[in-house]
Amino acid sequence: MAVSLKVEERATRPRSIRNKLRHEGKVPAVVNGYKIESTPISIDEREFSKLLRENGANTVFAIEIGGKKVNTLLRDSQVDTFTRRLTHIELLSVNLSEETEAETEINLVGESVGVKAGGVLTQTLYTATVSATPEKLPEGIDVDISGLEIGQSISVGDLPKNDDYTIVTDAEEQIVAVQEAQELPEEDEAAEGAEPEVIGGKSMFETFDSKKSRYASVGVVSSLPGELIDSICFDLINNDGRVTMHFSQEGSSVEMGIDLPFGYSNDFPQEVYAYDDGSRQTILLPHEIRQR
To answer: What Gene Ontology cellular-component terms does the record carry (predicted)?
Structure first.
């Protein structure tokens, strides 16, 4: 059954109109599709958010444009990254007697016997594409994982058929699996006292020039061969957790930036781990690195 949604036609010029709408608690929107030209509208943000919470994203919204009733589905919505408020809405006009495709969430139900036995559950598919008449589109697909044992998985093709809709997503797509927990390898005690790796007669950090960045120092390592630039990544380790080192290639050198959180203590990491094709080398952290 369609849910009534109040909308108002709006002008598109000047651009300041959009700011005025948002100040009034309305969201700029557009409706297009079946038997309707693209029409700019505005929607009350609170009302629309309330209807979404109560009915779901695949609800049919009945709106009125120019005295004509139009049945619509939510095609797309944009949200501000920082405020999390709606910034734009797109509605699709539909024919209630014709099938249409939409995305729907996949919900895992139950507790896997494999997880109870110590396995690790991994979900790789979170939405599926379904085809149905608008009023029969599901808000979600429940997947029972209670019988899933270690080493077993569930794919789209394993889901039971439903008379109301057809799943369009590839039947071979894996939804969830339970795997045996992997034990972490023990640290190689012999590697703890390893000397800094030397390439071409120089330590990777022998020529480290520091300069200020947003959070901490940035340096240039000029002794790292170009063929290794894309195969080596770095982690800075200290007692408080991980600190990320970024690097970018410029010719044969690597520019590195170290992101340290504000308020970071003076107890800087004392070692760097460099990974190359799975091996790990311990490299001394240069003393030139200092907090901004």
So the answer is: cytosolic large ribosomal subunit
pTM: 0.59
CA dihedral 11, 13, 14, 15 (to 10 degrees): 90
Matching residue, tokens 């709106």: 63
C-alpha 104/C-alpha 138 separation (Å) is 7
pLDDT in tens, 187-217: 655 555 554 444 444 333 333 333 332 333 3
Q: Is 261 exposed, middle or buried (0-12, 13-18, 19+ CB in 10 A)?
A: exposed
What is 3-97's CATH number, 3.40.50.300, 2.40.240.10, 2.60.120.10, 3.50.30.30?
Answer: 2.40.240.10
Radius of gyration (C-alpha) of the chain in whole angstroms: 28
Domain limits, the chain: 3-97, 101-179, 194-284
pLDDT tens profile 237-254: 333 333 444 444 444 444
CATH number of 101-179: 2.170.120.20
Query: Do residues 11 and 44 touch, judged by C-beta distance below 8 A?
Result: no
Pairing type for strands 153-155 and 174-179 reads antiparallel
What is each CA distance from 255 to 152, 207, 209, in whole angstroms? 45, 12, 10
User: Residue 9 above 80 pLDDT?
Assistant: yes
